[in-house]
Amino acid sequence: DQQVKQNSPSLSVQEGRISILNCDYTNSMFDYFLWYKKYPAEGPTFLISISSIKDKNEDGRFTVFLNKSAKHLSLHIVPSQPGDSAVYFCAASPPRNAGNMLTFGGGTRLMVKP
Amino acid sequence: NAGVMQNPRHLVRRRGQEARLRCSPVKGHSHVYWYRQLPEEGLKFMVYLQKENIIDESGMPKERFSAEFPKEGPSILRIQQVVRGDSAAYFCASSPRKGGGTDTQYFGPGTRLTVL
What we know:
The complex is a heterodimer of chains A (114) and B (116). In chain A, 0% of the residues lie in helices and 53% in strands. Chain A has 114 residues and is mainly β. In chain B, strands 2, 4, 5, 6, 9, 10 and 11 form a seven-stranded mixed sheet that branches. In chain B, strands 1-3-8-7 form a four-stranded antiparallel sheet, with no helix packed on it.
């Protein structure tokens, strides 16, 4: 029972263009969402997050959009750079009083071509 | 760099041996989480600890796995009598207070366990 899904295992984008990574969730109790970036043989690195009370959060080249009614979030990277090539995980968290674990999607491997 | 530290980075064990994985959280963080990543999968939550307390172990296998976070020293994830299916990357994360809401969990580099 996957509560957080990333349906695209991989994505290839040309340098300078936009990368759009998608994530769907099923548990309406989730109220905080995060994106992590992971290089091989390293731990996940926090990128950006969004609370369920917002529909957009922007940080430099990274923007996360949340559509609560569709239970969908996306990460936009503009412009994409070769150094962005990594596996991207979305994760979801329940409210503070309902647990502390992050539930992760299966990841999307992004390849940015020079 | 005062990030999350994990050791060893790589651990090889034979079936039936014990594996001990250590995690030192970010200085000042009192909440530790362990996650496991099997090959080609996402990370799965195992356990959440505060100093001297297990808060949530709903993701831990019922047998052979245990975790602690003593008053002094690192958090330890212990796997007894390892089997080949335990081969995975084990990640530790820490946060300054309870996760969820605006608290972000910061991850260590992981320990890659290989069971022969």
